[in-house]
Amino acid sequence: MDSRSDKIGRKLAPRGNLMRQARKAPFDRLFRLVQGLSESTDGLTLDDMAEVLGQGRRSAERARDVIALHFDLDEISDGSRKRFRIAGGLRRHYTRPSAEELAALRAEVEALRPSGGMRFEKLQSLLGKVQSSFDDREKRRIEPDLEELLKCQRSFVGPGPIAEIDRATSRAVMDAIMSGLCLEFEYQSAEATKPAWRKVACAGLLNGPISYLVGFIPGSSRLPAIYRLDRMTDARLSDDVAEIPDGFDLDDWLAEGFGIWREEPREVTLRVLPEGADRARSWRFHPKQRIEEQDDGSLIVHFRAGGLREIAEHLFQWAGELVIEGPADLKEAMRERLALARTMTGDEDAE
């Protein structure tokens, strides 16, 4: 036998459904109006809009004003009446870049302009295509916001080397990656007195202030090496197919180092003193770091990486807030960097 509460529940259920439908009705009407304005060829008058909403002209005017805040609403004169429609349909609205997106892309292009290269050219070309896709109405609508954003938005470019990349080199690298063929080039390393011929299977491209190619030497069991694109000349496709070892993952390989230089990874342990703990909690020393909270308020940071010189140079900014616990050769690398740093002051007691 049904309980009294079960019977009451069944009686109230239809009423509850009606209440939920009533709460959703305004949204349903507004969405139907948006759809009608986007699908109409001739546009809708305020009377047409009021009919879609099932309400009066005043409600139709309010709905039109809200829709105009979010869509390009065309106003078409039809004698004494006006018709309205959403220009370009809904798809164009949701795929059209905003002023914020366009300003971010422009800032990125300008940051890359000094070094040039293929990445700059591709993003500049993309920017031109995006801008040319706007019609006159869209340009007028976006220009005020875009102008203000461009005045105050920049991509920060810090001190560092100026590495100009030859366009032919960039093109050859991209062709090698897309074709799956090896790349041949002459390479001028920092230590050598003249360029040397290289042939590599392209395994990755690292873009930044300096762009690097990650490449395997065909027929060798050696780990991949890195090559600066600005030090390459006479880059060209090889006839040999590029073979990348099974299981190679660019992200995992990058995580084995601290910066760009490659060496055998070490287990690094850093103790951040209590006065630097808050700062360290929002700091990334390494993508795969582990942090342990200590009872005295300090932090222990663990990660595995090579590139001891780069680690030591990075830790200079933590002076007074951090102690290197290990490994011993990281401590030695820091001592060497400190000794060299003292020579920069010109003191007589510099070692």
Verbal overview:
By secondary structure, this protein is an alpha+beta fold. It folds into four domains: 4-92, Winged helix-like DNA-binding domain superfamily/Winged helix DNA-binding domain (Arc Repressor Mutant, subunit A, Orthogonal Bundle); 96-152, no CATH class; 167-254, Roll (SH3 type barrels), CATH 2.30.30; 258-345, Alpha-Beta Plaits (2-Layer Sandwich), CATH 3.30.70.240. 46% of the residues lie in helices and 21% in strands. The chain has twelve helices and eleven strands. The chain has helices at 4-39, 46-53, 57-70, 89-95, 99-112, 117-132, 136-152, 167-179, 250-255, 274-281, 308-315, 328-342, and strands at 73-78, 81-86, 181-187, 196-206, 212-216, 225-228, 232-241, 266-272, 290-293, 299-305, 322-326. The strands form three sheets. The protein has a five-stranded antiparallel β-sheet, with helices on one face. Strands 9-10-8-11 form a four-stranded antiparallel β-sheet. Strands 1-2 form a two-stranded antiparallel ribbon. Helix 5 (99-112) runs antiparallel to helix 6 and helix 11 packs across helix 12. The N and C termini lie far apart (96 Å). The model has no long low-confidence stretch (mean pLDDT 84).
